Amino acid sequence: xxxxxxxxxxxxxxxxxxxxxxxxxxxxxxxxxxxxxxxxxxxxxxxxxxxxxxxxxxxxxxxxxxxxxxxxxxxxxxxxxxxxxxxxxxxxxxxxxxxxxxxxxxxxxxxxxxxxxxxxxxxxxxxxxxxxxxxxxxxxxxxxxxxxxxxxxxxxxxxxxxxxxxxxxxxxxxxxxxxxxxxxxxxxxxxxxxxxxxxxxxxxxxxxxxxxxxxxxxxxxxxxxxxxxxxxxxxxxxxxxxxxxxxxxxxxxxxxxxxxxxxxxxxxxxxxxxxxxxxxxxxxxxxxxxxxxxxxxxxxxxxxxxxxxxxxxxxxxxxxxxxxxxxxxxxxxxxxxxxxxxxxxxxxxxxxxxxxxxxxxxxxxxxxxxxxxxxxxxxxxxxxxxxxxxxxxxxxxxxxxxxxxxxxxxxxxxxxxxxxxxxxxxxxxxxxxxxxxxxxxxxxxxxxxxxxxxxxxxxxxxxxxxxxxxxxxxxxxxxxxxxxxxxxxxxxxxxxxxxxxxxxxxxxxxxxxxxxxxxxxxxxxxxxxxxxxxxxxxxxxxxxxxxxxxxxxxxxxxxxxxxxxxxxxxxxxxxx
Length: 576
Ligand SMILES: *[C@@H]1O[C@H](CO)[C@@H](O)[C@H](O)[C@H]1NC(C)=O
Ligand SMILES: *[C@@H]1O[C@H](CO)[C@@H](O)[C@H](O)[C@H]1NC(C)=O
Ligand SMILES: *[C@@H]1O[C@H](CO)[C@@H](O)[C@H](O)[C@H]1NC(C)=O
Ligand SMILES: *[C@@H]1O[C@H](CO)[C@@H](O)[C@H](O)[C@H]1NC(C)=O
Ligand SMILES: *[C@@H]1O[C@H](CO)[C@@H](O)[C@H](O)[C@H]1NC(C)=O
Ligand SMILES: *[C@@H]1O[C@H](CO)[C@@H](O)[C@H](O)[C@H]1NC(C)=O
Ligand SMILES: *[C@@H]1O[C@H](CO)[C@@H](O)[C@H](O)[C@H]1NC(C)=O
What we know:
Keywords: Membrane, Transmembrane, Transmembrane helix. By secondary structure, this protein is of the alpha/beta class. Among the domains are: 2-51; 58-112, no CATH class; 142-355 and 368-387, no CATH class. The protein is built from 22 helices and nine strands. Strands 1-7-8-9-5-6 form a six-stranded mixed beta sheet, sandwiched between helices. Helix 10 packs across helix 15 (368-381) and helix 20 crosses helix 21. It starts with a helix and ends in a 9-residue tail after the last strand. The structure holds 2-acetamido-2-deoxy-beta-D-glucopyranose (NAG) (7 copies). One 2-acetamido-2-deoxy-beta-D-glucopyranose (NAG) is lined by residues 157-158.
């Protein structure tokens, strides 16, 4: 296990790497980051506990002596202290039931886990409809999600604004189709609403206080900017940009570059259309999604506008009169270090300080505007997952948490599966509960530990430093504690989950490493990790890395501002 090998890496290795980093300071790849951004894969460790309330109760009963004393005292107070032995025997009974059922269930869990695994292999993963199995709480119905997201991402039949309402997900779609009075329609569905009014984009989680300032408004405005009602309108102008594809550019750097291009597009009132995406150039991305961002996320603009842009690309006139521009029309300085659009004022001026570095909250730092904007841009680009991406996440959740989910279901859903699944979904399941995120053990902490050639980007921080911060978190949020002793030797008190992919060796460059994994794996794993890190309850990372910097942005536009961010080092724009 890599966690072992890395955590055993001691101070001397770190020093060596840092020295190497200094020496490499003048080498080509390091110049790339000095110019802008340079990043790629980091390692994810996800860990936490699955303790549903009932389970916690049982564990309390099992663990002497304090909980037992509490139980005993409270009962004895009620019954005058006479039932001490009764209580203990009840307790004994419960302990036995727990242990017995655990033994029996192990085979059952494995069986259920394997049955669920076979669901994942089918191309049409009609997860919720599948035959006799209990519903897998950790898997999503990707086809359904995708269909719903497409409705939220396009105009209606007669050019009506997408059905963004105050109700979440399917509930909003359903109500939208009903006979609502014109007044209500105006209130919730109009597209010309003032900026601070609904409709709000359905992809933002959490309250406004839990997101970066103006997140909802900016997301909606960017969507409207990117989705003009009539793409054939001759007054529209376009910016057509391929993704960066030099081998030195990791996924993170590509995203940062595209964020810069989106900023230019907004400032110049152009519609951004993304072109060739080298990371989607593999067999997992089928049909039109091949070599396109839309393999992983819904495209940045409508199909009509994409078509219009590629038509314009063929016309010499459009090039010369500037209706269409391409990435090459801008300097790398404009792309990587250009001004942030000011159409929303300067919301970064009132960003909450929720990042801790060296036991201190960082209140102010340079390039706050960039941090805010990259968060908005990446959030916009990743607003809706494709069906393919959703399936990749299903697979990842299944391999990390599938056994726990099986245990949960077998312990807590005593119905025979047949009755529980073959009946039709009720409205509340279909419309209201469908919006709940799939199960993952919570609270969950995500940690990105960097390895490999990133030494040129920043000094590598030892694994122990991350664990120290994790311990710190757990002091405050003790439920992060895990009752199951994991075999990870140095940190037996934590449960480690991580994606099963060969880790990068210290002396292998990112480009070589990615080549060794193959394009499909080297894109899918980081993206899956990225999304999972965004959804974890807490996060520890190194802001000095672009990748972690982007995760921070995604969390701060997904209602996670108040869980804070523990960083082992400074972002390179930081100053004291
Ligand atoms: C339980 O009750 C005993 C005697 O009534 C008392 O001394 C003890 O402090 C109580 N323990 C707790 C945990 O309340
Ligand atoms: C679209 O417009 C046509 C003509 O105005 C109308 O007959 C039709 O019902 C509208 N469709 C919807 C879904 O509103
Ligand atoms: C729908 O709204 C119209 C106009 O307000 C009303 O006449 C009609 O009865 C409503 N239909 C239903 C099914 O409520
Ligand atoms: C879109 O714009 C083009 C060019 O201005 C125009 O010919 C066409 O009728 C418009 N389409 C709609 C649906 O308004
Ligand atoms: C953009 O660059 C292309 C060549 O890459 C050039 O033909 C075109 O004139 C440029 N457009 C503008 C507006 O400078
Ligand atoms: C991880 O992958 C390797 C080969 O890629 C495989 O042999 C191993 O069984 C996998 N481990 C798990 C836990 O899936
Ligand atoms: C990395 O370094 C180790 C030790 O110097 C060496 O054994 C290994 O072959 C190197 N790997 C590569 C890919 O160069």
